[in-house]
Amino acid sequence: MRYVRKPTKEEEQELKRMTQQEVGRIAMRAHMILLSSQGYSVPKIKDIHQTTDMTVYTWIDRFEAEGPTGLYDRLRSGRPPEMDEKTEQVITNVVSQSPTELGYNFTFWTVPLLTEYLYQQFDKQLCPETVRQALYRLGFRWRRPRWAALHDPLEAAQQMRTISDAILRADEKTIILLQDESIFKRLPPLRQMWMRLGQQVRVPTPTQNDYFALYGALELFSGDCFHAFFDKTNSENTITYLEGLAERYPEQKIFLIWDHASYHLSARIKEWLAEHPNFTVFYLPKRSPQLNPVEALWRLLKNRVAANLTRTLDAIRTACDLFFEQHSSYDLLRISGLLPNS
After folding, report:
1. Average pLDDT, stretch 34-57?
2. 3-class DSSP string for the chain
């Protein structure tokens, strides 16, 4: 672990004066040097001042080379530097990397962090708003990323092709079911909503975060939907649900499309399917929930009946039933993205 060299008595007095009398950023640098001289580690100093390891090391280097005077901003002539093409190219290259690759204890870039990086590495003293505007000009936007499943795209494409070919070959007596499960908890998911400015709505947290599982299957062409509630997802409840499907479609062949959940792959499920030859199962690619249209249905359902309101499980179940009563088969196909919005 690296620490700053021991300051002389005169340097220590000057550093203390700087912490009390100089502007904020200069006082902070002097305080970092004093902390390091007192045995504080770089990570500890970084946490105290909410900065980065690289920043602490930079000012330790400057102090050891120039003493307390090295902690001041270097004199600049003329106007502060403006954003130029070279700096914009640096921003483009840097934002495409993780800050961790450049020694920062951050997992993504913020405007203040990027501003600091340009100053530390290129001596570019730009205001954060200038950096923000440059990011916009360069086509960057502050957005939430999306999950990306790690899978073999060729294998996934082959699986989807197998499903598509089976659907195209299916006769009129075959039912194509897209099946999935979703967990509903008493702790409500939080979504954007209207509230008065400066009066953020507080959603009470339940004393116990109980939950139930909602099983559902949507027929690809008719939009017929069969749903059922269970205490959890497991092989036993899945078999009970499959028996419900068998009763609902007693005369039809059933193509069942679902994911690789462990209870879908259990020995008990395989045994049950072997005893019901009218069921043919197709598996969606692993770690690809976005390929199941029922996921869109769950998303809207949770937003409608569970978000932003702490309710009992019975109230949530009743609301789910009402949702399906109020939406036609056409509505469910449209919500799931199987029909265009029109």
Report:
1. 90
2. CCCCCCCCHHHHHHHHHHHHHCCHHHHHHHHHHHHHHCCCCHHHHHHHHCCCHHHHHHHHHHHHHHHHHHHCCCCCCCCCCCCCHHHHHHHHHHHCCCHHHHCCCCCCCCHHHHHHHHHHHHCCCCCHHHHHHHHHHCCCCCCCCCCCCCCCHHHHHHHHHHHHHHHHHCCCCEEEEEEEEEEEECCCCCCCCCCCCCCCCCCCCCCCCCEEEEEEEEECCCCCEEEEEECCCCHHHHHHHHHHHHHHCCCCEEEEEECCCHHHCCHHHHHHHHCCCCEEEEECCCCCHHHCCHHHHHHHHHHHHCCCCCCCHHHHHHHHHHHHHHCCHHHHHHHCCCCCCC
